[in-house]
Design a protein that fits this description.
metal ion binding; Dimeric_a/b-barrel; four-stranded antiparallel β-sheet; heme binding; peroxidase activity; 2 domains; iron
């Protein structure tokens, strides 16, 4: 752990070394990774697996540049904690959303139609998903090294089965399947010792992201019992999202008359240019140097630079999911998340407008201490409705569920433009709510007794 993180964390009382490394790190760039789901058929085997995994799970930061670290993280669904034999009194102390699971709350967060749990990829949404392992690394060699102990532990523990795996890696373009650079924005968390990506963002209280510390309300977020289980843990929403890249390109082509218009319309829907340069700072054209500069590409506010959305529309994807200081209904600081998107599958070749049938998209990880007022609120109110920005019924043009009937407003002078007949460009292939415990909590789980 670097000295700055240690000093700053200590001054704020944050026990950084007890927080799993995978909880707070920005995503490496470039990156290689893997997600693994396990089913526990015998609680004693599950605890034995944890004891074998513990040496591979580290806390805190391990270098001056945490974005270059590799890490393995382990999290549990509600059913997974039950399978390990966690006492019912402790299970009952977890929040309702976590106990119910993501599939049971699909209507609330917009997983309907072809995104409904009935169409999810097995084993998502079933009682079989118990343990979620994730590993991210800047390269394949370090990924293999980080996962080696986990492989041995899984292989040598009868009674625990690997039931799903997904490899993820940065595409050769360094962008998402839709062609946009991501992984740019990371919150500024008070006392962490790791600067956020936006120097204009006032630090957010640690309790927004880690249990056991005050949040933005000044209170401690509800924490599962006993304290050793809850403290320094957090909640993770894991989602596999299929991207309809051909449909995205077809819509852009059908609603523009030139390549330049096509690029601008895409940027208006996303809120950034493909390079990552934000529309708020460069509204007329892409700026590759700006997009590649981590000191500038997230250094902006909306009320200061673009209050009326003539540069970046209020309904654009990045402005919806992180409104910053924009004039909205509610307090944006109450709904911040740590977000990590990781790509899977092959890119659709440049210029191809027809779907090739390949499965491609992202595995998204959304981390926060409050499932309902962070992840679920953002999905229900900001992504799949527009009341908070004064456009009732309008959904996120990129991530919203539209089903061919969606609309989106783009402010322009003298007359605003209104997009019509938006299809859904993303399909949920599965999701789970997980609890990511601190290291002491992992040891407590590993040493449970019947």
């Amino acid at each position: 752990m670097n000295a700055e993180a240690s000093t700053s964390g200590a001054s704020a009382g944050i026990e950084i070394d007890d927080i799993q490394s995978g909880a707070l790190h920005p995503r490496p760039a470039p990156y290689e990774g893997r997600f693994i789901f396990l089913r526990v058929d015998d609680r004693h085997a599950g605890r034995s697996l944890l004891r074998r995994l513990l040496p591979a799970i580290e806390g805190g930061f391990h270098s001056a540049d945490p974005s270059q670290d590799a890490w393995v993280a382990v999290a549990f669904t509600y059913q997974g904690l039950r399978a390990l034999g966690v006492p019912q009194e402790s299970l009952d102390s977890f929040p309702r959303a976590f106990r119910q699971g993501m599939a049971a709350r699909a209507d609330l967060i917009g997983d309907v139609g072809e995104s409904a749990p009935a169409h999810w990829e097995p084993p998502f949404g079933t009682a079989d998903v118990h343990i979620a392992l994730s590993a991210l690394s800047p390269d394949a060699a370090r990924l293999d090294k980080a996962l080696e102990r986990a492989r041995i532990a899984c292989r040598d523990t009868p009674g625990v089965q690997v039931i799903w795996q997904q490899e993820v890696r940065q595409l050769p373009t360094g962008r998402t399947t839709f062609g946009f650079r991501d992984g740019i924005s990371h919150p500024n968390i008070e006392g962490l010792g790791l600067p956020g990506s936006n120097p204009r963002e006032a630090p957010l209280k640690a309790g927004e992201f880690i249990l056991g510390y005050p949040d933005e309300t000044g209170n401690l977020p509800p924490m599962p019992s006993p304290d050793v289980l809850g403290r320094n843990g957090t909640y993770v929403a894991v989602r596999k999202i299929h991207t309809k890249v051909a449909a995205w390109r077809q819509y852009l082509r059908a609603n523009t008359s030139s390549a330049r218009e096509e690029a601008l319309l895409a940027a208006k829907m996303v809120g950034r240019w493909p390079s990552g340069a934000p529309l708020t700072l460069t509204p007329e054209h892409d700026d590759a140097a700006l997009g590649a500069d981590p000191h500038r590409n997230n250094d902006f506010l909306y009320r200061e630079n673009d209050d009326r959305g003539f540069r970046c529309p209020a309904g654009a994807h990045i402005r919806r999911t992180n409104p910053r200081d924009a004039a909205i209904i509610g307090d944006a600081r109450m709904h911040r998340l740590i977000r990590r998107g990781t790509s899977y599958g092959p890119p659709l070749p440049e210029g191809v407008l027809e779907d090739d049938g390949a499965d491609r998209g992202l595995v998204g990880v959304f981390i926060g201490a409050h499932i309902e007022r962070q992840f679920e609120f953002i999905k229900a109110e900001w992504v799949n409705d527009g009341n908070f920005i004064g456009f009732p019924g309008e959904k996120d043009p990129v991530a919203g569920h539209h089903d061919g009937t969606g609309s989106a407003t783009i402010p322009e002078r003298p007359i605003r433009r209104r997009l019509q007949n938006l299809p859904s460009f993303v399909v949920t292939r599965g999701g789970e709510y997980c609890f990511l415990p601190g290291l002491r909590a992992l040891r407590w789980l590993a040493e449970l007794r019947d």
